[in-house]
Amino acid sequence: MAQNNHKLFYITIGTFALTAIGVYFVYRLMKQSKKSARRITRKIDLSVFDSPDMPGSGNCMDRRLLMMLEQLEMRTGYPIFDWINSGARSEAHNRKVGGASRSSHKIPTCMAVDIGVPSTDIRNQLVYEARNIGFKRIGVGRTFVHLDTDENKSQYVAWGYPSGRRPDINPFV
Question: Which InterPro entries does the record match to this protein (predicted)?
Answer without folding.
Answer: Peptidase_M15A_C, Zn_M74/Hedgehog-like
